[in-house]
Design goal:
The complex is a heterotrimer of chains A (about 150), B (about 180) and C (about 475). By secondary structure, chain A is of the alpha/beta class. Chain A contains five helices and five strands, in the order βαβαβαβαβα. The mean pLDDT of chain A is about 90. Classes of the chains: A alpha/beta (about 150), B alpha/beta (about 180), C alpha+beta (about 475).
């Protein structure tokens, strides 16, 4: 996969959940190129094209959408969000929190930081599948992204 | 019997009628002496005699008439049954002074002046109330005189001879009388 | 009437009555004394005149008689006098100018008597024992009345003055009684108005009022002490309650977050299980044999079931801990909504709904709604095998117990009543999961909610004949 032609950057530490999410996104052909990283550090490396991604990633060619979980080891989702949204070069990348936390402080913090959307992962699988489908449709097909 | 009684009554009644005819002619005089008799009787109540004149209650109070009796029966009638201070009253008739023994009130009916004077003088020492009609009576030493004034019998009293005779005349009597000396 | 006025009234009344009685007694005595005096005087005068007039009568001396009577000029109260002779004929009269008809015609009974306005009578004129005539005297009572008037005026003045004095004195002296009483009353009133039991009454004097004041103050002390104790006790209780409530809240909150986090954390892996099972189903069902597919299906079904269980348990736990807030519920509206929302997926069209008009009820809308949901969905579920599904919903009033009773009757499979005591317990089911899905929590929730409302739940059923579930709510 070309790291610069990524539709969705999925930042999720639980690989099974990641698998289910990816499956749903690929189903209905909402997204094709989905890159999965397991923690915030890796996510930032990918976005900024540094470290292990120094050669493969061009910061000017970001993924179309970032799906960001909050609770992750090393660097958590909110920190990642902050970093992305405070940097001129990455600020305009659409970020959607996809997390199980429905804690109000988390939600406020994310919006304060400029998150584009906040989705709480439904515990019910059917609804979960539905939510992924909908958000995928919306952000990748309906929503207009900058060129 | 009945016939007798009725006759007696007739007799008495005719006498009375007769008497009334007679008396009416002398009404004024009789009436006068009736009053005088009453006065004489009344004197007994207004005069006090010394003890020796009326020694005891039973002693009679004598009203004497010296001379003719002008009172007819009035005096007796008036005094009949009466007592003055317990003393019974008796009327006595005297022809002359010497006959007078016990007497308390004496009505002197003597016309002759010298006889009158004589009588008065001889009665001086005795406790007898002398009464008369005579106009000179007081002058001659009499005590009480009846006079006629305004068709009324009034009394003149000279208290001195009475005093000399130890007679006490009640002031009440003196008041009603004309005091003369 | 205020106590001061009462005291004054008593004092003045007694004084007044005493004065009045005393004065009246004296007055009456004086009145009779006057009369006696007047009588005696007239008698004496009569005596004197009579004695003096004996001679005049005896000697028929009218002038003297008149003069004697004239002496009565000095006695202005004697307004008429006359002398009668022995025979009872009028002899002389005084005053000369008074007409003869003013004098008695003839002498009457001896002695002097009071007529209405005069004192008159006859005195025999006696010389010694002999009656020479009779004297008549008539005296007016003017001077007597004059004196009585004077006496009366003096009496009234004295009474008035005395009463005035009594009034002034009593006004001053009654204070010695009324002042302590008023002070006590004042204090009492002040205390009851302000509720301030620290006040004390002022004691004045060592008499019974003093004791009363002491007793009163003692009582106040007691009240104060007790109030203090009560307050302390109250405060103590309040504190205890606060602590307990805080503790309870803490526990509640802990439980809540515990339950929540349990359910949440339990459900996350479930999601994954179901997801992967679905993946198997969707992507690999062709590549697997029937058995494998069946197994996959079983895995998925059970995972789903577990999710339901977790949800129901969370629900049950939450309901147990929640405060219910009672408001008016439009029952028929709620029932209709529930039927629409829950029954459509279960083939509403085929069900014969017999719904009576349901009265409004009083309860917590959310939880009562849950009750209706559970009962109605049960009714639908357990009668779905009956081609002529009929569900009746109605109500009646139990007057004895002051409750509204609602019932849902279905003509479904029913159950054996001998197991009905198990029905409302958590996870207890009377049918197998193959026959009818369900977690066995629904009725437990119903029972919990209704009993929290102060009502009761009961059921009548027979195998094959359906069941009728009743629940009551206080009116």
């Amino acid at each position: 996969m070309d790291h610069n032609l990524v539709d969705v950057l999925l930042v999720e530490d639980n690989s099974h959940e990641a698998e289910l999410t990816i499956r749903e996104l690929k189903k209905h052909h909402i997204a094709n190129n989905i890159f999965h990283v397991k923690d915030g550090e890796e996510a930032l490396d990918f976005i900024f094209g540094v470290e292990q991604f120094a050669g493969t990633r061009d910061i000017q060619r970001p993924p179309k959408l970032i799906l960001l979980d909050i609770h992750m080891p090393k660097v958590n989702g909110i920190e990642v969000l902050q970093t992305i949204k405070t940097d001129e070069r990455t600020r305009s990348i659409p970020v959607v929190m996809l997390t199980s936390s429905k804690e109000d402080p988390d939600i406020r913090r994310c919006y304060a930081l400029g998150v584009n959307s906040y989705i709480v992962k439904p515990v019910d699988f059917i609804r979960f599948a539905d939510a992924i489908k909908n958000l995928g449709f919306y952000w990748l097909l309906l929503n207009q992204l900058p060129a | 019997m009945r016939y007798l009684k009725t006759m007696k009554r007739l007799y008495i009644n005719s006498l009375l009628v007769f008497g009334i005819f007679f008396s009416s002619a002398q009404t004024t005089d009789d009436h006068e002496y009736q009053i005088k008799a009453a006065f004489l009787f009344n004197f007994a109540q207004f005069v006090e005699w010394p003890a020796n004149a009326l020694p005891e209650t039973k002693a009679p109070l004598v009203i004497g008439i010296l001379g003719e009796n002008p009172f007819s029966t009035y005096l007796e009638e008036i005094i009949s049954g009466e007592r003055v201070n317990g003393h019974p009253l008796v009327v006595q008739q005297y022809k002359n002074v010497e006959e007078i023994t016990t007497c308390h009130i004496l009505f002197i009916n003597l016309a002759e002046t010298d006889k009158l004077e004589q009588a008065i003088t001889s009665l001086k020492a005795r406790s007898i109330l002398t009464v008369s009609d005579n106009s000179n009576f007081i002058k001659q030493g009499g005590m009480v005189r009846f006079i006629r004034k305004n068709n009324k019998i009034q009394i003149q009293i000279n208290p001195e001879p009475a005093k000399e005779a130890n007679l006490i005349i009640s002031s009440k009597l003196l008041r009603v009388a004309e005091i003369v000396h | 009437m205020p106590i001061q006025k009462k005291l004054m009234r008593v004092i003045l009344l007694i004084s007044g009555i005493m004065l009045f009685i005393t004065s009246s007694a004296f007055f009456i005595y004086e009145f009779y004394a006057f009369r006696q005096t007047a009588l005696q005087k007239l008698s004496t005068v009569g005596n004197v005149i009579a004695t003096n007039s004996t001679a005049a009568l005896a000697f028929d001396n009218h002038e003297d008689a008149y003069e004697i009577l004239l002496a009565l000029k000095t006695e202005p109260q004697i307004i008429a006098a006359s002398l009668y002779d022995k025979k009872g004929n009028l002899f002389s009269h005084y005053p000369a100018n008074l007409a003869i008809n003013n004098f008695p015609v003839s002498p009457g009974v001896n002695g002097f008597r009071f007529s209405v306005s005069h004192l008159e009578g006859f005195e025999p004129v006696l010389e010694g024992k002999r009656q020479l005539g009779t004297l008549y005297l008539k005296s007016d009572l003017e001077d007597m009345y004059e004196r009585l008037r004077l006496y009366g005026t003096i009496t009234i003045s004295v009474i008035t003055l005395s009463l005035l004095l009594a009034y002034l004195l009593s006004k001053i002296l009654q204070k010695s009684i009324s002042k302590p009483i008023l002070a006590l009353a004042e204090t009492t009133k002040s205390i009851s108005d302000k509720g301030d039991y620290s006040q004390r009454a002022v004691k004045s004097g060592e008499d019974e009022l003093g004791w009363l004041t002491d007793g009163f103050n003692h009582m106040l002390e007691q009240i104060e002490k007790q109030n203090l104790l009560l307050n302390e006790f109250n405060q103590d209780l309040e504190n205890k309650i606060k602590v307990r409530t805080a503790q309870l809240e803490t526990v509640n909150n802990e439980l809540e977050s515990f339950s929540y986090s349990i359910s949440h954390d339990l459900r996350a892996p479930l999601r994954t299980i179901i997801g992967f099972a679905t993946m198997l189903e969707e992507n690999f069902s062709g590549k697997l044999d029937d058995e494998a597919n069946r197994i996959t299906s079983v895995i998925k079904i059970n995972a789903l079931k577990m999710g339901d269980l977790i949800d129901d348990l969370l629900s049950f736990s939450r309901i147990g801990r929640q405060e219910i807030k009672k408001t008016r519920i439009n029952t028929i509206e709620m029932v209709r909504q529930v039927i629409t929302e829950s029954a459509i997926p279960n083939n509403k069209a085929g069900i014969d709904w017999a719904i009576e008009s349901l009265p409004d009820s009083k309860g917590d809308p959310n939880t009562i709604r849950q009750v209706w949901i559970n009962l109605i969905s049960n009714a639908v579920k357990y009668s779905r095998n009956n081609s002529q599904q009929r569900i009746e919903i109605g109500s009646f009033i139990n007057i004895d117990k002051d409750q509204q009773v609602f019932f849902i009757r279905d003509n479904g499979i029913g159950f054996n009543e001998k197991y009905k005591h198990k029905l409302f317990k958590v996870f207890q089911r009377l049918h197998s999961a193959d026959e009818f899905e369900g977690t066995g929590v629904g009725l437990a929730i119903v029972e919990k909610v209704i009993s929290k409302h102060g009502g009761a739940v009961w059921v009548e059923a027979a195998v094959g004949k359906g069941a009728c579930f009743y629940f009551s709510l206080p009116i």
